């Protein structure tokens, strides 16, 4: 009963905040609500969810929460329900998938995938008496970003192309959720144009870095150049750590690249060399910078608008 009541209380709080915060307007346009971000992030990182390990009660509560984000925004399930059951994992595990059709008669046949993984590693070796690996930066932060894109597009409905919003499970088990879904969509001949993935955006790049965020697979397409052109500054930069540790292959963008041969990239703002809580119990809500997250998402909205609404496929792979 404790888990159930906690879940419904959090959903109710999110509904209130979503109405009062995420859908408010700035004088010059839409305003991303830091309060909405904090509400989602705090729920996903709570000890009650016990680190969101796939196949556990904790990640089930996270799945229900994300389904409710779609429901309150009137985002339709892409499949019969929001749940896409993984075929490659031994325990019950689900991607949570919503679909928003584009408003252009021609371009709506092209799909942009916006995703993040919502699982983490669960319970592990205790550090300073804490054995719950809450996964705030990795990847409740990216999951929260996608919920804010859902909030935005559900209200504004400015997307010419269709958007598939994906919350992937079992990323930490070997990209299993995205591998399953990408193969399934490829078999169904979905016309996927671009995949935008969010991972570890909970803290800003350190002072002195000449970028707001980095993108994995920086040289594989012209996406970074286009984003910087759209934003009028060096928004996306090259990060040698991403090359050294092959981060392009380490998140849910990669199965879409391999299945569809399209530009598919992950965005991150966390400097892995200075953030010391990767896969540690210390990756908690209190370590996250929700003001930074709101600012990053706010800046990504007009960029995403241009990507989704360009009259031609401006983003292409490089040779």
UniProtKB/TrEMBL annotation:
<dbReference type="Pfam" id="PF04389">
    <property type="entry name" value="Peptidase_M28"/>
</dbReference>
<dbReference type="InterPro" id="IPR045175">
    <property type="entry name" value="M28_fam"/>
</dbReference>
<keyword id="KW-0732">Signal</keyword>
<dbReference type="GO" id="GO:0008235">
    <property type="term" value="F:metalloexopeptidase activity"/>
</dbReference>
<feature type="signal peptide">
    <location>
        <begin position="1"/>
        <end position="19"/>
    </location>
</feature>
<feature type="domain" description="Peptidase M28">
    <location>
        <begin position="95"/>
        <end position="300"/>
    </location>
</feature>
<protein>
    <submittedName>
        <fullName>M28 family peptidase</fullName>
    </submittedName>
</protein>
<dbReference type="GO" id="GO:0006508">
    <property type="term" value="P:proteolysis"/>
</dbReference>
<dbReference type="InterPro" id="IPR007484">
    <property type="entry name" value="Peptidase_M28"/>
</dbReference>
């Amino acid at each position: 009963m404790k888990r159930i009541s906690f879940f419904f209380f959090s959903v109710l709080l999110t509904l209130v905040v979503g109405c009062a915060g995420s859908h408010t307007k700035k004088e010059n346009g839409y305003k991303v609500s830091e309060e909405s971000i904090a509400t989602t992030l705090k729920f996903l990182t709570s000890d009650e969810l016990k680190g969101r390990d796939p196949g556990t009660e904790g990640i089930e509560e996270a799945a229900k929460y994300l389904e409710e984000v779609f429901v309150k925004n009137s985002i339709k399930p892409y499949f019969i329900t929001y749940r896409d059951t993984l075929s490659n994992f031994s325990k019950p595990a689900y991607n949570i998938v919503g679909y928003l059709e584009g408003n252009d008669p021609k371009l709506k046949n092209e799909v942009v995938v916006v995703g993040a993984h919502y699982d983490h590693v669960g319970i592990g070796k205790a550090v300073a008496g804490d054995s719950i690996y809450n996964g705030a930066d990795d990847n409740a932060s990216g999951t929260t970003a996608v919920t804010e894109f859902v909030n935005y597009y559900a209200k504004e409905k400015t997307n010419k192309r269709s958007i598939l919003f994906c919350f992937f499970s079992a990323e930490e088990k070997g990209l299993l959720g995205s591998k399953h879904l990408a193969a399934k969509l490829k078999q169904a001949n979905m016309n996927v144009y671009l995949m935008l993935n969010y991972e570890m955006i909970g803290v800003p790049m350190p002072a002195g870095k000449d970028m707001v965020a980095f993108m994995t697979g920086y040289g594989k397409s012209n996406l970074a150049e286009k984003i910087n052109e759209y934003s009028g500054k060096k928004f996306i930069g090259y990060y040698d750590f991403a090359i050294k540790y092959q981060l392009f292959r380490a998140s849910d963008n990669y199965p879409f690249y391999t299945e569809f041969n399209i530009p598919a990239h992950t965005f991150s703002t966390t400097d892995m060399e200075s953030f010391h809580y990767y896969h540690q119990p210390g990756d908690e809500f209190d370590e996250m910078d929700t003001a930074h997250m709101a600012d990053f998402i706010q800046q990504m909205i007009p960029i995403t608008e241009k990507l989704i609404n360009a009259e031609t496929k401006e983003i292409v792979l490089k040779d």
